[in-house]
């Protein structure tokens, strides 16, 4: 992975490497296409390097997406097409479906479908499994999907994540054998389960805490700068403020 990284850096492009995934990205301003040219040139260099080393770039797993206002996305998309690059409206990023509007509707639908599928299978065996084991199954196959990368949902409206709360409510009903129309909030409190809306904020707060105490990746810790307010008796130049009445 070192030579591709050197090629990417030589084009002044930012990137992240994961175990089996590489992401490269550029930022643009309105009417600016220089970074797009650099991106296209970088991809050509990577493809050539792979061919020289008897490797092949899998085009089916190579995706391109544009984030930003729709009108600007359309302009950039047209320019990308002129470079034989075809952007997608949504891509899968480490298991998360990201769309150009960053509303995460497709991701929420995918999580909902998978979680309810497993919850229905768990419900079929709830009468032959002890409650502690049933809770383990629910956390393994349902809660884990609700919590995976849920920090990305921070800032979305309550309506956007309402479907995910239905999943947690259904899981609590299966575990406690609560009737469908019974009030669910006391059940969640008895299980010590934070609702979905609070779970995403808890995840964000935990990440900030770890970052401030150097327990998170360095590139995340470096993004957080503690706020130090200026003393009331000093201005930005380090001198006492001028008395307006003098």
TrEMBL record:
It comes from the Eukaryota. PANTHER family: REVERSE TRANSCRIPTASE DOMAIN-CONTAINING PROTEIN. This is Reverse transcriptase domain-containing protein. It comes from Oryzias sinensis.
């Amino acid at each position: 992975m070192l030579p591709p990284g050197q090629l990417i850096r030589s084009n002044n492009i930012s990137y992240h490497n994961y175990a089996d995934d590489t992401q490269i990205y550029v930022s643009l301003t309105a009417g600016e296409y220089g970074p797009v040219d650099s991106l296209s040139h970088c991809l050509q260099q990577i493809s050539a390097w792979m061919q020289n080393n008897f490797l092949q770039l899998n085009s089916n797993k190579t995706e391109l997406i544009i984030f930003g206002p729709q009108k600007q996305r359309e302009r950039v998309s047209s320019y990308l097409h002129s470079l034989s690059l075809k952007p997608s409206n949504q891509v899968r990023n480490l298991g998360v479906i990201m769309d150009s509007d960053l509303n995460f509707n497709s991701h929420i639908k995918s999580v909902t479908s998978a979680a309810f599928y497993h919850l229905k299978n768990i419900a079929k065996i709830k009468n032959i499994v002890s409650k502690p084991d049933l809770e383990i199954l629910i956390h393994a196959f349902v809660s884990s999907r609700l919590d995976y990368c849920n920090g990305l949902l921070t800032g979305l409206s309550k309506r956007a994540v309402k479907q995910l709360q239905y999943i947690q409510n259904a899981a609590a009903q299966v575990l406690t054998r609560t009737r469908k129309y019974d009030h669910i909030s006391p059940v969640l409190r008895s299980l010590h389960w934070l609702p979905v809306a609070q779970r995403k904020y808890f995840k964000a707060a935990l990440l900030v805490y770890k970052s401030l105490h150097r327990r998170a990746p360095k590139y995340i810790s470096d993004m957080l700068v503690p706020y130090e307010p200026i003393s009331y008796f000093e201005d930005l130049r380090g001198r006492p403020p001028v008395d307006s009445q003098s």
